[in-house]
Amino acid sequence: MGKLVRKTGIAILWLVIWQLLAVIVHNKILLAGPVETAGALARMTSEPEFWDSISQSYAHIMLGIFIGIVLGVVLSLLAHRYAIISELLSPLVTALKAIPVASFIILILIWIGSENVATVVVGLVVFPITYVGMENGFTAADDKLLEMAHVYRMPGFNQFRFIYLPSLIPSITAAISLAVPMGFKSGVAAEVIGQPLLSMGNGLYKAKIYLDTGDVFAWTFVIVLISWVTEKLILLILSLFKKGGRTK
Amino acid sequence: MTIDLENICKSYGDLKVLENFNLEIENDHSYVITGDSGKGKTTLIRILLDLEKPDSGRVHLMGDYKYPYLNAGVVFQEDRLCEDISAVQNVVIVNKKNSVKVAEEELKKLLPGDCIYKPVRELSGGMKRRVAIVRACSIPSDMLILDEPFTGLDQENKEKAIEYIRQKQGRNPLLITAHDAEGLEFCREIKL
User: Fold this and answer.
1) Closest alpha carbon within chain B to A243
2) Are residues A18 and A90 in the same domain?
3) B122-128 own/partner pairs: CB under 8 Å, 24+ apart
């Protein structure tokens, strides 16, 4: 309880500092205070366009995250099974990790246009994170247990379920808690550059054009909130899965 | 079945662990390999299981042996159990033919019945050791290889374990490593 009080206190303190700064700067374009931001948020949420933008963007970004995770998991399983696939994918994954998101966005815009830019970019960002996370999980599996499994000729499925999975779950959990926020950040960036209509990125862009800093803050708040809730939800589902695995 | 270990040599750097080691392992026979730590007991087992290659010499699986590898029930120097799951499950998962019912019966011969469904991480060292012994004896194998299987067992449990192993051994060869051959007088002793 004491911890909660302290955390709330700290949050309020920062809000007050933010409000004070806004009062001192006294320029709505340079810095909108918490009061203006809350006002902007209240106004935005009353417009149907806002909800359409969120649902459109959310669907696109989530689809990208889903594709990225599925690709990462499936390809890492194949790479674990067949060394040649691992070798083939290695330079691709390295390249995907190194290429700036902005370059992806521009390239995807040229190739497929703005409609689905967020989905593809998010997929390309999430895939290597998941893939590398799975790789780490495979490496972390207990060598001594694997040797035991080899000597006993333990059925392959049991090896996966009882030796690999316990080390894959923490790795994939860490990867997902990194991949989801990264997905939202890159997805919105793709929308700001690509300008698909009715999207969170488009909302941000419009706020920028009208120099409406309060709206920028409000959109940012919404995006962070959605990303955070999504990440926690996915991790909750994963932890249920993990618990399920523990029981007999 | 006969396994012929022929002139096995193995060294790690300057340390010679095995030098021209010869042994013929036959059905109906039991062997205990004694020697201080670092004398190559575990190395010998690893070579027998093809987990390590000897520097020179060969392991022959003689006769018309049906596998290209030695199909053995093994207790390793460490327990090597999956810690998150129960003793029963540890026994069941190693072989398709193992069933919960049989695993339960076998484990109860060496362990108190109330602990065999607890996650293995909650068991004591001696209990884990016994789970490892039961697991080794549970699979359909052609040989038992036990690397210091009685570590952490008191006298009573050691005797029970020996009796259990003898009964499960059948006609297959048995190879045990130990610091001394106490209680293992039925085995042929090989000093390293």
Assistant:
1) B84
2) no
3) B123/B87, B124/B152, B125/B151, B125/B152, B126/B152, B126/B153, B126/B154, B126/B157, B127/B87, B128/B79, B128/B81
A175 and A235 co-located in one domain? yes
Question: What percentage of chain A reaches a pLDDT higher than 90?
Answer: 84
Range of the domain at A110: 37-246
User: Within this chain, do residues A118 and A230 fall inside the same structural domain, yes or no?
Assistant: yes
Q: Taking a C-beta distance cutoff of 8 angstroms, is the pair B39, B178 a contact?
A: no
For residues B127 and B111, the answer to whether their CB atoms sit within 8 Å is yes
pLDDT tens-digit series, residues B114-152: 999 999 999 999 999 999 999 999 999 999 999 999 999
Nearest to B93 among A147, A150, A162 (CB): A162
Q: Based on the structure, what is the number of domains in chain A?
A: 2
One domain for residues A98 and A210: yes
On whether both A17 and A86 belong to a single domain, the answer is: no
What is the structure's pLDDT at B39? 85
pLDDT > 70? residue A248: no
Are A178 and A205 in a shared domain?
Answer: yes
For chain B, how many structural domains are there in total? 1
| Average pLDDT per 10 consecutive residues for chain B, totaling 192 residues | 90 89 92 89 93 92 79 95 95 94 95 94 95 96 94 92 94 92 90 85
> DSSP secondary-structure letter at B8?
E
Range of the domain at B29: 2-191
Q: What CATH number is given to the structural domain containing B178?
A: 3.40.50.300
Q: Report pLDDT digits (tens) over A105-163.
A: 999 999 998 999 999 999 999 999 999 999 999 999 999 999 999 999 999 999 999 99
Contact status, residue A44 vs residue A102, Cβ threshold 8 Å: no
B71·A153 Cβ contact <8 A: yes
Same domain? For A17 and A126 the reply is no
Interface test with B, best of A142, A147, A152, A167 (most B CBs within 10 A): A152
What does the block give as tokens for A91?
């330079």
Return the percentage of chain A with pLDDT > 70, whole number.
97
Inter-chain residue contact B76 with A148, CB threshold 8 Å: yes
- Contact criterion met (CB < 8 Å) for B74 and A246: no
